Amino acid sequence: MGETIFGKVIIKGKIIVKTGLHIGAQTEAIEIGGIDNPVLKDPNTGEPYIPGSSLKGKMRSLFEKSKILEYSPELRGPPPKGEKDTSKYFLNRNIGTSKNPIWIHVHETYDGAKACEICRLFGSSGDSNYPARVIFRDAYLNDKRNLEDVIEIKYETAIDRITSAANPRPMERVVPGTEFEFEIVYNVENEEEKKEDIKNLINLMKMLEDDYIGGSGSRGYGKVEFRINSIVERGLDYYFNNADEKPIVSGELRPEEAEKEVIGKL
Ligand SMILES: [Zn+2]
């Protein structure tokens, strides 16, 4: 089951790497004789990219961590043992084991997910299976330099806390100053919620700038900045009747600047 679509809002811009970025590749993708900790690369071009799933996952997690505060402490979860109605708790499903629990936020019902600011944007995978309104495209490299100038190898020295022995290991990173192009597509399913949803997305970009993407964030990796180059709205007329799209925002705007413009125009 899906919602009606009244149109789409497309947000485009760039992600500027501010501190070395390491989004790791899956181990099976590592070539023999390659470096231990390579960054994820597009197999066709060999260029690093930021997967849409990384951006989406990080923004969702930041949104959840801030929204949980709207629940009273006893309802934040996880539910007490033996509780039958877990749906009133924010963290309400254990996808781990009873020994190693991993509690996540989902909804039992479709309407519950639809009424939730987080899940209507990012989707809910529980019984409700509410599809996300937002699509994060993979963000591809937009940089004229040679690849060897975009990727560096940094030797991270892990110190054994017990023996104090140094254990240097190579780590590939995308260097600061590198730019990627992002695109986020938002499906307009409810006109009344459109402005709030887009504002939430832009605010999550602001929050992500003060967080990190990829690995080793607590050790300084993965700080990024967003520039929003355009936000356009495409109604059904655009797709079916050759109508023009409606420009909402253009230029090279910081998220907070774009947010101010969106409020008046969307
Ligand atoms: Zn939710």
Report helical residue fraction: 10-25%
β-strand amount: 25-35%
Count of individual helical segments: 7
Task: Indicate the mean pLDDT.
Answer: 89
- Contiguous runs where pLDDT drops below 50 for at least 5 residues: none
Notes on the protein architecture:
The chain is α+β, with helices and mostly antiparallel strands and 266 residues long. The protein has 7 helices and 11 strands. Strands 1, 2, 5, 6, 9, 10 and 11 form a 7-stranded antiparallel beta sheet that branches. A hairpin with a 6-residue loop joins strand 7 and strand 8. Helix 1 (52-67) packs across helix 5 and helix 5 runs antiparallel to helix 7 (255-265). The longest helix has 19 residues, at 191-209. The radius of gyration is 21 Å and the shape is flat. The two termini are 27 Å apart. Residues 105, 107, 113, 116, 118-119, 124 line the site of zinc ion. Zinc ion (ZN) binds next to helix 3.
Q: Which features would summarize this protein structure in a list?
A:
266 residues; alpha+beta; seven-stranded antiparallel beta sheet; two-stranded antiparallel sheet; flat; binds zinc ion
Structural topology:
Layout lengths: L6 E11 L31 E2 L1 H16 L25 E2 L8 E2 L5 H5 L2 H6 L11 E3 L2 E3 L5 H4 E9 L6 E9 L4 E10 L2 H19 L14 E12 H5 L5 E8 L1 H11 L1
Antiparallel strand pairs: 1-9, 1-10, 2-6, 3-4, 5-9, 6-9, 7-8, 10-11
Zinc ion binds next to helix 3.
